[in-house]
Amino acid sequence: xxxxxxxSYWRTIILAAIIIGGVVAFWFGLKAGLRTDYPLLTVxxxxxxxxxxxxxxxxxxxxxxxxxxRAAPEPDGEIIVFRSPRVNGELIVHRAVDKEFNDNDGLxxxxxxxxxNFGEDLWGDDPARGTWKNMISxxxxxxxxxxxxxxxxxxxxxxxxxxxxxxxxxxxxxIILAEYIPVLLKKHPE
Length: 190
Fold this sequence. Notes:
The protein is elongated. The mean pLDDT is 90. It contains 3 helices and 8 strands, in the order αββββββββαα. Helix content is 33%, strand content 24%. Strands 1-2-8-3-4-5-7-6 form an 8-stranded antiparallel beta sheet. It is an alpha+beta fold. The termini are close together.
């Protein structure tokens, strides 16, 4: 009886380690391959509706050469991901609609706009926040959108909710119980 429990216990631990190791390797592989700390993001607002919808999972490529980014009105400008100059920690996904080089600091600045928004984003003129002439600095760039998977982003959006956390815990318990219940129900000679 105890040898069966030990085998089942170790099998579960090894399987969990393989799954966790695979997920970690996949994540770090994506980060290295796409050269960004944010290779996959979920669209959480409707500001890019029709191009990117709420719940789309986007693939982001980092390590950009700002001078080579295409900035033009929809649909020609590249969709970029950048740190908000207003809300610390918030990432924004909007189209680069114009760009300008600032000779004073030697940086490129980008005018941005959500495709579904009425006008360009107004970021102000504050060098401490990385803005100039209502544009954001290249120092705020995370990367550009190079792909999307419709609806897959709903998974991380749902997981962040209370119900999503409860569902994960319940699924984890079901997986653990599914491994041990057959062992407990099986009769073994002593």
